[in-house]
Predict the 3D structure of the following.
Amino acid sequence: MTTPIATPSRRAFLAGSAVLASALVVPLHRALSSVPAAQLAANGYLAVLPDGAVSLALPKTEMGQGIMTALTMLVAEELGLAPSAIKVSIPPADRARFAPIDTTTGGSTSIRELWKPLRQAAANARAALVDAAARQWKVMPDGLTLADGAVVNPASGKRLGFAALVADAAAHVPTDATPTPRSAWKVIGKDTRRLDSADKVRGTAQFGIDVKVPGMKIATLAQSPVFGGKLAGHNTAAAKAVPGVADVIALDDCLFVTADSLWTAKKGLEAASPTWNEGANAGLDQAQVVSALDAAVAKPGVTAKAEGDLAQARAGAAKTLEALYHQPFLAHATMEPGNCTAHVTPQGVQVWTGTQVPSDCRAAAARVLGLGEDKVQVHNFLMGGGFGRRLETDMVERTVSLAAKVPYPVKLVWTREEDIQHDMVRPAYADRISASLDQAGKVTAWEHRIAGSAVMARFLGDKFNGVDDDAVDGAIAPLYPAKARLVTFKQVESAMPTGWWRGVGGLRNTFVIESFADELALAAGQDPLAWRLAQITDPRARAVLQKAAAEAGWGKALPKGEGLGLAVLHIWDTCLAAVAHVKVDAQKQILVPQVTVAVDCGPAINPLGVKAQIEGGVTFALSAALYGGVTLEKGRIAQSNYNDVRPLRMNEAPRVITHVMPTDNAPGGMGEPPAAVIAPAVANALFAATGKRVRQVPLQAGFEAA
Amino acid sequence: MPVSLTIDGKQRTLAVAEDMPLLWALRDIAGVTGVKFGCGAGLCGACSVLVDGQRLFACQTPVADVAGKAVTTIEGLTGQPLGQALAAAWEELDVVQCGYCQPGQIVAAAALLKANPKPDDAAIDEGMSGNICRCGTYNRIRAAIHRAADTIKA
């Protein structure tokens, strides 16, 4: 059986797997000993191979965010190489290999977790190579440098390639070498092109959906349209009458058809015409979900943060404002539809898929099949978008369930309709937020009640304490000081399966808090920028706010029907501010021609990648801010494809102007922050343009109703 | 019934039903996976191919409709000067993120430049409006099309 590996890494993987035993291997956990365990959530594997090549098995997964490039840059810096000279591979899932740290990629954690340990590991490798060269030359190691895969003695002009040093170096790897100081960086902080472009622009990059396994059939599935429903009946003979259909496999809540192509499988599934016992949720509509959320925020939920005396802080206030905000369920709608390939044999199971959670996928396959994890191999691939959808293991679970019932390898592909209607959606939320202001417009009391599905609860089980720590991220310590603060969370579940979505909790909180900040500025009779600067003490947040405002021309006169709006956040160890320029046309259509962003994410490992994340994150989340939301109708998701889950197209996408402000702060995340800031910036600009305050996403529908 | 066509310069005969959309004939039968499945409904452009220089959505084109014709996918296009110029511009401007939509974007850009060798922003927006990018790389795609147009002209 072939074992396809993502194209950029195939050669490296094959090389690395054969020679690791004799390589200078620097297990990351050795390098981590000097780093507090609390900072770590990942592990990796770095090797200098006998031929002198440097290989890196990615501890994190690539879904477009550029982590393959950024992590490789950290290694390249220490080892005196161009990033493109390092052999990068996407390793198969192996929790033990990377233990004690998980390999999950999400929450803008990759750089934050690996910034220290990966440079430490590479610095240790560097020191080992330098020391080995010093021993050979019988000189002191001080003053020796690395360049182009060799140790160089500038004094003598001598060079020794890594290949000549590996054996000796491998026996003397230190654990406490000093990583290259910022003043000497040659790679970190420099615009660096992605390592995965060449294959992606030629159609040769391999995503999970492109896997080819000899003898493979292609399958698709129908799951109960109503959440919780069961398969009632289907016509196997009709499906098998479609030429090319191989098998029809029924589970209690799902029907699969395998065939020679996805199209044939889909025709077979249509011919099988499954019917469903819809079950208890068949009457559930979106309005019931929203009512439950509204009821939940009518009183405080479980305390996430309480400080000061709220009643006292309110008592002397000049003004008190209260507002109710709503945010919808959001589909991920990754361009690459759901898919997974599996082959179950007496020896175990092979799984091929693109996932943000390779170790969890391995465990899920083992659990479903009743096997030990040692019988499960999960080969990971580039992802055609993740956005949190591929933090779930449902695709693997469905696929191995099917593969266990057929004698051949099978690639299971979700149709777009099935992908959207069985997404694990971003929860819908209601937020009731109130604040009191003193005579000067300063916040005295602040109360924020949040209600929605608790995604964390699904993962924590009995350990869940009633507060979803992600859903309150950015809310328990907002940028606005107050004498008293109460932040609460109330878990409200519906039949809708929920999961994480790019921007996660910080996104939902930033929409509410930054929209409400403009409402407070208005109540205080102050300009939104001036009011924020009078409240915010966080110097980094102030700096990005002032930069974005200045670059966007804050305060300039604009034609009627146009406005600027701003939003700022300090979450994921990153400070980011955006100014959106909004126009409203005669048909009440909200247009966003330009967004200006300033960011302090610390040193900005790859500024070119940081800019890409800003351009992309803003555009991704603007689609949802303007038009997003899937709704429950009769227990099922009413939307089904890109006509009603509407991503922006090129003519609708804003021009995104980015200002990366490198600082000495520890590196922050960059996947989530740009996504999190755009909805409130646009809502505030919409108010500036029209005088209408829209307290819901999607903004376009809210504006039309206003 | 077998259908004969040319795929990226190679004569192929595929044993498929005539009404099978070209997308699945290419991906699942012929093994040309550079062509991507995104929506199956002509909404996203990920499956774009060139037939006689025109961009078609392969998911909406029955394979019998292109019998005897020359189909160019991203894999063949990037072996031609126009495709090479586009691929180079995409790489120089670091366009891709997840990369899944980009084969379709580049094929659509090739059709655009064949029809209009020097498009302005509005012409690019119009020509590319059939292609969705979830990662939001539109600013860079537009810039890369300008870059490629300049390269070809030079």
Residues 138-153 of chain B form the longest helix (16 residues). The two ends of chain B are 47 Å apart (CA to CA).
